[in-house]
């Protein structure tokens, strides 16, 4: 890769990609990311093949969105499994930066604390990555399926989870069922894509 490409510019390019290309680009980028903190505690990442740093929360917000898009866009099963490889990477990024923040605060090396979240509800409810990723709320996000899609792949087999909401446009109740990694692997073996 050209050493003159800025990391944040590359992430901005990835954000503009279609879902399947975006997942692959994040998979290619994340293994070589290094976490760091700004002097005020902002979570950042760097990469040996790119200049500058990028905001971890921005990248993580996009990662979370890609998981949801797997359901919305009926992503192929293989791509949903590929996406799963990102879960432990992002969990590790937040675990490391949380430890770094704690150490910086304890040592007095943290200047005025970066305001990571501003909102009218809590960080968990608003889906802020620094709250929902460490809590495991987005783990396996790519394995949610619309009800009819789940039934097509697995019939009445028990799901590993479900979520329900009222559709604001139609005022109808909607829901998704969550498959296990093993269920998805089995569906692929049975010829589903």
From TrEMBL:
Top-rank taxon: Eukaryota
Residue ranges of the region described as Disordered: 164-185
Protein name as catalogued: Uncharacterized protein
Organism: Aspergillus chevalieri
Phylogenetic placement of the source organism: Eukaryota, Fungi, Dikarya, Ascomycota, Pezizomycotina
């Amino acid at each position: 890769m050209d050493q003159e490409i800025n990391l944040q510019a590359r992430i901005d390019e990835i954000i503009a990609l279609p879902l399947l290309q975006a997942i692959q680009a994040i998979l290619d980028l994340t293994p070589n990311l290094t976490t760091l903190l700004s002097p005020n505690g902002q979570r950042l990442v760097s990469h040996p093949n790119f200049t500058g740093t990028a905001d971890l929360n921005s990248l993580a917000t996009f990662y979370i969105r890609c998981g949801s898009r797997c359901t919305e866009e009926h992503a192929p099963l293989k791509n949903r499994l590929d996406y799963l490889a990102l879960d432990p990477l992002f969990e590790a990024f937040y675990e490391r930066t949380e430890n770094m923040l704690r150490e910086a605060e304890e040592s007095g090396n943290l200047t005025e604390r970066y305001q990571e979240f501003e909102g009218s509800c809590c960080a968990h409810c608003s889906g802020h990555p620094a709250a929902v990723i460490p809590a495991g709320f987005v783990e396996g996000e790519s394995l949610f399926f619309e009800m009819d899609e789940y039934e097509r792949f697995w019939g009445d087999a028990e799901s590993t989870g479900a979520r329900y909401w009222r559709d604001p446009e139609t005022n109808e109740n909607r829901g998704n069922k969550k498959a296990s990694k093993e269920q998805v692997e089995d569906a692929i073996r049975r010829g589903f894509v």
